[in-house]
Give the backbone structure.
Amino acid sequence: MTSEALFSLALTIIFGALVSGTPLLFATLGEILAERSGVMNLGIEGMMLVGAMSGFATWFNTGNIWLGFLVGTLFGGLLSLLHAYITITLRADQVVSGLAVTFLGTGLSSILGAAYVGKKVPTPNTIIVPILNRISLQEVTVVLIGLVVAPLIWYYLNRTRPGLNLRSVGEYPSAADSLGINVYRIRYMYVIFGGLMAGLGGSAMSLVTDPGWVDGKTSGMGWIAVGLVIFASWDPLRGLWVAYFFGLLRRLPLDLQNPALPLISTANNPSIGRVMDMLPYLATIFILILGSREAMRKRLGAPAALGNPYIRGERGL
Amino acid sequence: MKIPGTSYQMRVETRLDNPGWMGAASAVLGIILALIVGGIVLRAAGATDPIGTYQEIFKEGYGTPADWQAGFHALLTNGDCPRGLLCFGPISDTLVKAAPILLTGLACLLAFRMKLWNIGADGQMFLGGLAATAVAVFIMPKDTDRSLMLILMAIAGSLAGLAYGLIPGFLKARLNINEIITTLMLNYVAYKLLEYFVVVGPWSIGDFESTGPFPKTATWPRLTEFAKSVPIFAGLTAHPGILLGIGVAIILAWIFYKSQWGYQIRVIGDNPRAAKYAGIDLPRNILLVMGLSGAIAGLAGMNEVAALRELNGRFQRGLGFTGVIVAWLARLNPLAAILVSILFGGLMVGTQLIQPQGISAMLQGVILFVVVGTELLFRYRIKLEKAEQIVINKAEAPHDK
Amino acid sequence: MSESPNSFEMRGIVKRFPGVFANDHVDFSCKVGEVHALLGENGAGKSTLMNVLAGLYRPEAGELVIGGKQVTLHSPQDAIANGVGMIHQHFMLVPSHSVAENMVLGLNKPRFFLNLSQVEEQVAALAKQYDLNVNPRAKIWELSVGEQQRVEVLKMLFRGAKILIMDEPTAVLTPQEVEALFRTLREMTSQGHSIVFISHKLDEVVAIADRVTVLRKGKITASGVSAKGSTKAQLARLMVGREILFQIEKKKMEPGKIILETKNLQADNDRALPALRGVSMQLRAGEILGVAGVAGNGQRELAEVLTGLRNSTGGEMIFDQVALGPHTNWREIGQRLAHIPEDRSAVGSVPGLSVAENSILKCFNLTPIAKGWSIDAAAMQKKAVKLVDEYQIATASIQTPVRMLSGGNLQKLILAREISGGPSLMIAVHPTRGLDVGATEAVHKLLIKQRESGAAIMLISEDLDELLSLSDRLAVMYEGKIVGEMPAEGADIQRIGLMMAGTKVEA
């Protein structure tokens, strides 16, 4: 194997990591904002599935991939609206409601997506990049969106008034309320934003990073996103590189099937492939262990009001 | 909160009473609402007759009154059922399906009582299935006594589940790591582990993605095996798994409501700070509860392999998640979980043949939504009031001094 | 002063909560440049009335006139727009934000991009004008309670509040900080601000207010009387509706053997910073040791370390001649070591469990409640019935979940449970906070009775009056140390105040 080919392979793996990490990044960013507002949404997996399925169905029927993105994103948001209503207005347990979102999303995507399993849409436009061989325009676009959006969200959160309001609502909602900030509206906004981002992440999977639809398409990515939010200690920029790291872990089994790597190729040894498949899940647990040590040392904390429904006037009576 | 377009506003007050009927009411409401929503989705998915579909589900899951009548008649006269398997077939299949979800439901319920969100009953069940299979196929000789074999499988299954439950338990107790994420991640690891052993790995026979059939001694005895003495049992698949579940439920009920340990679990579940104040050891109880919860889920895995008579790559995922809903719908009451699991078993049997698949998962999601949404009604009283100024009727005021 | 126009007027305000008439046709007004005190017991409806003025609650009837215009406030923002700012008892500051971020929170301008360095300059200028010294870049959690209160005042001035409502502002301050606050308030009234001063402390009201309005059980019992022309006894009668005893009867007791001794005890707080920096003290049987101090000087940590809720990082504790430490079985000694925790519902009880189940919280594994591995339900009920009768706990039944009990009854249940173990040491933290006068008196009597039966009692409180009237000895805590000890009888409140503020005082 020539050094040029190795270089090319390395670049392919890196770009692959960016591509497969991007849907995870979208979902993680959305959940970071939702949790910073004080609402945990464990339904990311379900919203991603619905986003992936509806996005793919739209693409398949209309042939317009961008319309697919739009529909997938909207459906993710629609599902999160349910979670917002149950947890913010009805003040129900956020954990259980989030689980219900995932069940519902899994079921809905399975029922409505049955007709699209295994269907193909003509390959998207590709552009030729010298070293990376062929990559698609859509892949580049999606990765760029992720690279731009994460710092923007960081800036929004830390340097703007809506960001300040958002953080206040998640840290001390009654203080925000006493200053005229509408706690309910802000929580609704960001739970829905989280849903939209999960839907976007799901549709990015079924439209770009791994085009097509199968039942349970996201295979736990939504849950991994929930874990990443904790490890990223609710910081969008930390979320960025953690998501890419997980993209790498997800890609690795595929890349290692490359017969050009005779020593570690999994092409001839499927058992190793199964073990490799476990990596993202084990790594999630591992980073949480790492994170807990760091959290203890640096005293990084979750938003103070995370998980608590807000009830005006319950204290001051 | 103002309701748009009206002059009424919703007011939420803390409830000072706690009517017992509301638990059952919210469960029934949940099921009805779920059926309505499910009907709408079925229509959207192209089904022309949702009500007919439901009738079909009900018939497949529980049978018809006429079948039951004929069945009991045959049972009393020790004769055949005129319609063959149809008499008790549906309920027998339902009990078979109910056994694992009763066990996973109990596993979840035990952990949830202490506000430990063990969502990993699925993974713990897979590990239980693997361990029981190892005993049945690879460790014990084929001609082991049947009850001994089954007991050893149950022990192995529950021990494997216990160990797998202790991992997130340990991480929670020592490092305060969110158990929702760890238990979920371990689910996926367990799926891959099973694939590794059975699909591509050391346990698969050729390309069958299976361990091959278990020796008979490693399988649950089914009713049909006794068809010689009771003819109506012919073809019935019901096995002692459901009894195992009911036994565990009764033990859990005793633990919760009678024992000192159950008292500690309830105190921790309601207010961990008060538990610490009372000198109750939290980490130790987290380990105990997660371990026992995993062990019960592991039993569910043993039950499944003993019922399926082989372990293959199609070992069903998601029964642990159904357990979450069973636990919640039973309002964390172990005895209520028995009824709920039989109800859900019927739902699963009834929807098995219906396309599209996934209807069961969706209905479960909607039921869970309604049950958690109506939780509010237990703690608060919701009143609709005119948003405009309200003229106080003095006689109404409760403590007008 | 009397010719000044009214800055606001409230007429016939009615506000109900489930089961309570919080405000029953209340009239209240305040003149420009005036401090108007709103006096009343806990639960009299003072905070409710002011929450109405601050736009947090909407009254069911009544009208509100601010600056001569009739207004309807839909939100706190409306109130601020009308120049009304409220400083709540629990500060409405976001702990993880900086002072400047808290200043601009909730404002309309700038709408999107925040220019925090500009805000910091404005805050510094404003702070100078009113002599309120704070660093605009500091995070709120880094500030002391007194500094946080200054931030709250600045926040309201920054928003252009002309009417400032202060809800029990002195509760958490040292006497010296109270003086500084009063100077600021006078400075503000001289610049044309109006101040509503909510309090139940008569001395302060007489010291700072121009006029006083008294509320009792949601109704006005005195409207706008001159503060200078009223005596404390008059005001007290208006407030509680009967003469209250400022002194508590207690027998002379000869202190017995040493029950609790600490030597150089150290511990960290939740942020892993040292909270106890070497506490050494002795507590004897039949003695009440009052621990005074401003909140956050280690009192909470001291109580938690002594009851096993927090690990010590150094030093010794000896209880009944046995050293306590990591090896201690706290559940075992829980019967002899009673603990009335600061937070009744979050620590001292299990809200979802019944009165009966809560009554065995610390003895569920002991006879007669425990029977093998199970709990003897009959014994549990017998115990609960006994406690409810003996301590006159008002509850629908012993099966009622305790979250439905009132604060006073919950506190009585906790005390009853702790006393039922026959403790030789009792650690009581803010045992009367938030209770009405009747319940407070009941709790005080129970504590005195325990003392007379020979228990050693550590009473941690922020209420100096309570400490002085109940304690035999007083210890003052400052920054994790005991900075002074004295007999309670004849103790000089000025000197205690200086000690609470960390000033060295010659013994």
The longest strand of chain B covers residues 8-14.
